[in-house]
Write the structure tokens for this entry.
Amino acid sequence: MSLPLAIEQLQSGDKEPVHWFYVLHGILGRRANWRGFCRRLQALRPDWGFILVDLPEHGESPDLDTPHTVEQCAERLSALSESLDRPLTHGIGHSFGGKVLSAWAQRSPASARACWLIDSNPGDRPHGQGSAQIRSVLEVLPKLAGEFAQRRDFIDACASFGFPTSFSQWLAMNLMRTESGPLRFRPRSAVIEHLVRDYFQYDAWPIVEARPTSTQWHLVIGEASDNYGPDARARARRIAAQSSSVQVHLIPEAGHWVHVDAPEILAKEISASTQP
């Protein structure tokens, strides 16, 4: 069966999981970024399954047709859910993936039961506040569009633009082997630029504030992250105080990459706070 998006499924044993969580990475990520964390969470909850998704234009998923927007990614996610015999009801979305999950929940409020937004500020940020590193990558991406004989050459090219080695290695996960042999950076820079621009403009607060009783919203904030400014943090707390269907989880000392900085704490939060 041909699927609209590339996926990887994780489950313990042969017994059908009680919940399947669709897991969405951030911009320029891919599904493998979340494999280790999901295995950690599965150790706590072996009765859960995970569907790790490569978002459009990322990993092994097809290119994204126009318009290059959060909504278009959510439409592809809906098509994936319809293609599988495991409908989307529970989701984990990091950063850009959190906005895609929110847009899907707005399209399918009756299906959405639990949405975990991992350091994914629901609000619009027209000037890209809190995402300086991604904005700097956008300026460099067109210069990384060529071919590279080996992975080390790509990492060296990133370093020449001032990127730390660890971040350059993370970007290198997007390298794909061409038919002729060399490596190339998979996501198209122009498409990524459109997606990031739409991500900053997309406002998901209305769907979170609507608080349909069938959906549990979990807003995870890295304490050391600047993705959530003071106003956004106050708004999240205010909404949570008004409704039991919205919870805020502040993860101590974690930055934007919460699942990397504090995987044990995050796994315990998701395990303990997801309703049956």
User: Anything to note?
Assistant: The chain has eleven helices and ten strands. The longest strand covers residues 216-222. The radius of gyration is 18 Å. The mean pLDDT is 93.
